[in-house]
Write a structure and sequence with these properties.
Length: 123
């Protein structure tokens, strides 16, 4: 259902460096790349996540209550990428582990600009 989601950035180069490094373990590649937008994906026709300089040239801001969740193959990858996000300058918003009565493992973090993301695994 989701084609792509974008996160606004005020430091395009820094945002690209962060997500290039973070996504290398997923095998995600740059699918779209130009002077104001980069989109990453893992398979043709799959959902994409990107960073973008706002078209209206105003400052990018984070959305309160906005979060992008990325499904991963197993809980080990959730923990690995959460740790990697923190090592790349992200901040912790919830260590890897199950939430509530579900067996799904979640981990939450904010990228260097404050956007909230989650990694999760249902296996």
């Amino acid at each position: 259902m989701i084609g792509y989601a974008t996160l606004g950035t005020n430091d395009f180069e820094k945002a690209n460096d962060f997500y290039n490094a973070l996504f290398e373990d997923l095998g995600a590649k740059r699918v779209v790349e130009d002077t104001h937008l980069t989109l990453w994906g893992t398979k043709r026709g799959g959902a994409l996540l990107g960073v973008i300089k706002p078209y209206n040239k105003e400052e990018a801001t984070i959305g309160n209550g906005t979060m992008v969740a990325l499904g991963l193959e197993n809980p080990e990858m959730v923990a690995k990428l959460h740790a990697k996000a923190l090592s790349l300058g992200g901040t912790d918003e919830g260590a890897p582990g199950p939430r509530g009565k579900r067996e799904t493992v979640f981990a939450y973090f904010r990228d260097p600009e404050g956007h909230k993301l989650a990694f999760y695994s249902m296996s």
